[in-house]
Amino acid sequence: MALRNIREEGDPILRKTSREVTEINDRITDLLDDLTETMRSVGGVGLAAPQVGVLRRVVVVEVDDRLYELINPVITETEGDQYELEACLSVPGKQGRVHRPAHVKIEALDRNGEKQVYEGDELLARAFCHETDHLDGILYIDKAELVDYDDIDEEYEEDDN
Ligand code: ZN
């Protein structure tokens, strides 16, 4: 396991589309481990591979002490709407409100290549959407309203993903 450098807004890699994973090998499982370690080192709730400069469809999310390792994630169902503050480890010092589904269902492969289906509400739903967007070169600031450049308080700092 190793910490990886988090790319920041302005780095063109964040705007590229990540490629599907066709074979889950040591490079992919090492990537999952490094994403988790890097996410935890900065107190984030999610991190996507392009944020560490790897254009593969791999993300990790950790909410309520549960770690989700998602390979080739696809959001298959959405329901409702929420409008909450988000922040992004690749966009330091900003936050903004984004419309997201209140509930999402997401399918992905786990590190053993097994298809898994997860469902999330509230923060977990936001994190699934936010991280999946990263794989298509989309940052939350593209969708956010009222992006706030003021100091981010403790409550929202925990929402960095
Ligand atoms: Zn992000």
Brief overview:
The chain is of the alpha+beta class. The protein contains 3 helices and 8 strands; from the N terminus they run H-E-E-E-E-E-E-E-H-E-H. The strands form 2 sheets. The protein has a 5-stranded antiparallel sheet with strand order 1-2-3-6-7. Strands 4-5-8 form a 3-stranded antiparallel sheet.
What small molecules are bound in this structure? Answer: zinc ion
Query: Which sequence of SSEs, written as H and E, runs from N to C?
Result: HEEEEEEEHEH
Count of extended strands: 8
Question: How much strand content do the residues show?
Answer: 35-45%
Radius of gyration: 14 Å
Structural class: alpha+beta
Major sheet: order of its strands?
1-2-3-6-7
Shape designation: globular
Low-confidence stretches: none
The helicity comes to 10-25%
Residue-averaged pLDDT? 93
Description:
The chain is an alpha+beta fold. It contains 3 helices and 8 strands. The strands form 2 sheets. Strands 1-2-3-6-7 form a 5-stranded antiparallel β-sheet. It has a 3-stranded antiparallel β-sheet with strand order 4-5-8. The relative contact order is 0.21. Zinc ion binds at residues 88-90, 130, 134, 161.
